[in-house]
Amino acid sequence: MRQAIAAAMARSKREIPHYYLSADLDAGPATWWLEHENAKRGPPERILFAALLLKATALAAREVPEVNGFFVDGSFRPSAPIHLGVAISLRQGGLIAPAVHDVDRSSLAEVQASLRDLVARVRSGRLRSSEMSDATLTVTNLGDQGVQSVFGVIYPPQVALVGFGKVTERAWASAGMVGARSVVTATLSADHRVSDGHRGAIFLSAIGRLLQQPEKL
User: Would you call 96 helix, strand, or coil by DSSP?
Assistant: First the structure.
């Protein structure tokens, strides 16, 4: 496992000219909505914040298609489907990033169900081969480990990776007032052969904007 990861990451850093961006996103509306929405649901149907992040990422990728696809044979091949690879740690060590398919076209409940099913099958060794090869953009979320931000390495031949840290209470200024607000740091690692910092910034901004209306995700 470590040898396979080392080979892929070494290739990535050798071949892909990475650039990195980060943005602190207002997660207040999303966390408030999620609390009230989950109060209506039983434990098996409750939605995790991770599902909102995946859906917002997928919808933002619709707006900035340069982050979704593959760099193959010297050129970028955009992908119409948005299949998000989700980095999942293994109990025996290492990690893999199988795909949740068509996240942009799925409801939040469907994204949550797919994510729960995927994690269970990763841990029991029951993944399908297509789930390992279909990801068009990868998301890694280390918030549950207490990490504030993560700058990942792109999985070739993909051209971008999105990272999310822990949702924390921070001072937040709005309309001339300062108060405590739930904030999550989003990061983007992207391939400079395909996009640039301007497009990457639009992508992160779109994620933040979409999280302001979680009921529409």
Answer: strand
Domain positions in the chain:
2-216
Enzyme catalytic residues: 192, 196
- Among residues 42, 147, 55, the alpha carbon closest in space to that of 110 is found at 55
- Identity of the amino acid at 155: Y
* pLDDT tens per residue, range 44-90: 889 999 999 999 999 999 999 999 999 999 999 999 999 999 988 87
The beta strands (E) that lie in 27-94 are given as 69-72, 75-78, 84-86, 88-89
Distance in Å from the first CA to the final CA of the chain: 36
pLDDT at 48: 94
Q: How far is CA 7 from CA 13, 28, 37, 88, in A?
A: 10, 40, 43, 18
Report the C-alpha gap between 71 and 16 in whole angstroms. 9
Provide CB contacts within 8 A for 216, sequence distance 6+.
210
Structural tokens at position 42: 């039983």
- 4: which residues sit within 8 A by CB, 6+ positions away? none
Q: What is the CATH T-level fold of the domain 2-216, as seen in this structure?
A: Chloramphenicol Acetyltransferase (3.30.559)
